[in-house]
Amino acid sequence: MLNLDHATQVPHGGNLGEAARRYGIARENWLDLSTGINPDGYPVPPVDPQAWLRLPDDDDDLEVIAAAHYGAREALAVAGTQAAIRMLPAVLPKGRIGVGLLTYGEYAPACERAGFPVDRFVTRDIADLGGAASFVLEPGRPLPADLKHLVLVNPNNPGAERFTPDVIMGWHEELAVRDGTLVVDEAFVEAMPELSVAKFADRGGLIVLRSIGKFFGLAGARVGFVLADKDVIRAMRSLRGPWSVSGPARIVTRAAMLDTDWQTQTRASLAAAGERLADLLGEFFPVVRHTPLFAWVRDERAPQWQDGLARHAVWTRRFDVVRGLRFGLPADESGWARLDAALRAVSREVNAGGV
């Protein structure tokens, strides 16, 4: 019998229904900061009603536009990054694969299900937890000799660690000698494009995954892209099958990618909002790291903090493998005020031992 345990074990943000049931607070009364999705997303244009009547056109210009947008030679549209993650093991030669201990939770189970030995790594920022991991990933330090593949989320979710393209491509060269593959998940890099290695994606042994869900605030469209060499694109296209991205989603994604003015303005506004969030959280937590779309705080009292904030109808994403919380951005000044007030109230409770 097929074992589906992994399918239900990976927690994610956005689980507001669970919070509403647990705390008895109606969904509409919550300030949901449990994801890193832009709360002021791309203004969706009207969609031609005919798009709902036709099968999606996999041969439209969406992939050409995406490749140009990312600076890559080829792009494959998929139903969100999650679909690509499920396909990855089928296009990788068997071998040991490195996945972060504190990172997006779907990679390790997808690889384990496919029979890949998975080694968990930590970065220098959390190297004090090295005993819980197989190796420390650090610029200038050689990768383990028996490692075939490496999955890198850059900037990392949730820890906000980031690596420069020079460092990333150094790891790629190290793995290429072994006929291995570097997988770089750039779900949050749209707000920090200087970190992207998309322009190198036509090199063998490099697969880059991109998403429109976070920066563009279009998570509900379920659209992502695989950037890789021709052989990988061809193999994943066959695995993907037809019509994986809906017609209306293709229209909206195309419009968002072509709207460079909106993108420029949004990068600036998100950078300011990310700094504001980090400054606010810095009043309450000693360790705060952030990207323009979310902030990460490391604190052993993360369960008490999450519970206390939830009692004030502020929902955050808790991580236990490394105790901490991830905070997304409030959507407006009312949300910022609610977060500020909740943090001050819960700080008093936590420090007094009352939560």
Task: Tell me what the structure shows.
The chain is of the alpha/beta class and 355 residues long. It folds into two domains: 15-36 and 261-351, Alpha-Beta Complex (Aspartate Aminotransferase, domain 1), CATH 3.90.1150.10; 50-258, Type I PLP-dependent aspartate aminotransferase-like (Major domain) (Aspartate Aminotransferase, domain 2). 34% of the residues lie in helices and 16% in strands. Strands 2-9-8-7-6-3-4-5 form an eight-stranded mixed sheet, with helices on both faces. A four-stranded antiparallel sheet has the order 10-11-14-13, covered by helices on one side.
Average residue-wise pLDDT: 93
Element string (H = helix, E = strand): HEHEHEHEEEHEEEHHHEEHEEEH
Q: Span from first to last CA?
A: 44 Å
What is the fourth-level CATH superfamily of the largest domain?
A: Type I PLP-dependent aspartate aminotransferase-like (Major domain)
CATH class of the largest domain: Alpha Beta
Helix content: 25-40%
Bulk shape: globular
Low-confidence parts: 1-8
CATH architecture of the largest domain: 3-Layer(aba) Sandwich
Q: Helices and strands: which structural class?
A: alpha/beta
User: What's the β-strand tally?
Assistant: 14
Instruction: Write down the CATH topology of the largest domain.
Output: Aspartate Aminotransferase, domain 2
Output the number of helix runs: 10
Question: What is the total number of structural domains?
Answer: 2
- How many strands, which pairing sense, and closed or not: the largest β-sheet? 8 strands, mixed
Measured on Cα atoms, how large is the radius of gyration?
20 Å
SS strand fraction:
15-25%
